[in-house]
Amino acid sequence: MAKTKRICTLLLRLLALAATLSAAIVMGTSHEEANFFAISFEAKYSDTPAFKYFVIANVFASVYGFLVLFHPPESLLWRLVVALDVVFTMLLTSSLSAALAVAYVGKKGDSQAGWLPICGQVEKYCHQVGGALAAGFIGVVIYMMLLLYSIHTALNPLLV
Amino acid sequence: MAKTKRICTLLLRLLALAATLSAAIVMGTSHEEANFFAISFEAKYSDTPAFKYFVIANVFASVYGFLVLFHPPESLLWRLVVALDVVFTMLLTSSLSAALAVAYVGKKGDSQAGWLPICGQVEKYCHQVGGALAAGFIGVVIYMMLLLYSIHTALNPLLV
């Protein structure tokens, strides 16, 4: 029973690592050159602070997710792992929300503020950002599951 | 010792309730009419989906924060409280990040996307939104402290 649980957790952690890593790579490689009337401009993730934050948070979470794979299950540091899981889940949630909010303005615009949507001009860029956000969302959901599972088992000594 | 802890937790929860409630009220009452050349427009929180989400999340967190004050310390539901703390901390983090990201664009603009900053036109509105975000930030920090404290004590049966 304990072994099955261990394998499940390991699989979830591997999935989370894959999700955060691909979110960082897909967002990090997103760019497109476009011509708008006579003006040529390049849309890049690094122009938008929220997207930069998203890449940095996912890189950090990937490094943590990689290191924690080698954490022995008998170690006494598991309380630290749960606390770090909380911190990294927060970091990922926060970066995903910030990137989503800006991407929403990019897609729909904001008529009150006079901000026009830009997805019509840089469609490929928009799709790539959307893919990165989807991968980031999967990462957040898996970390959330791992966290609630830790709380469910670890907070009840009878279940461990 | 247990009583001091109980009082500390209660005080933190009261502070968190005050922070989320004031964040919701300050953001919810933010609006300003401005004239830009010949055009008159009204800046309101409800025009921006991220700010609406911020208000809703803080209202939900306030209701939860109010109800949990009456939760008896001997109750067996404390594991549910920790899990709900995780969920609400996530919700607050996510709404704060989304609102911050949009507020940042409102303050600084985004030259690549052609979005102009609007804080020059609606200064009072911007300050009020800034105040709401500060209160929301305090709420997130307190919930984070409560969560890490729960993990610190509750995950170690010897410390309870």
TrEMBL record, chains A, B:
Annotated compartments: Cell membrane
Transmembrane segments: 50-70, 82-105, 125-149
Keywords: Cell membrane, Membrane, Signal, Transmembrane, Transmembrane helix
Signal peptide interval: 1-23
Domain of life the protein comes from: Eukaryota
Domain called Casparian strip membrane protein: residue spans: 4-141
Membrane topology: Multi-pass membrane protein
NCBIfam families assigned to the protein according to its UniProt record, in alphabetical order: A_tha_TIGR01569
Assembly: Homodimer and heterodimers.
Entry protein name: CASP-like protein
UniProt source species: Nyssa sinensis
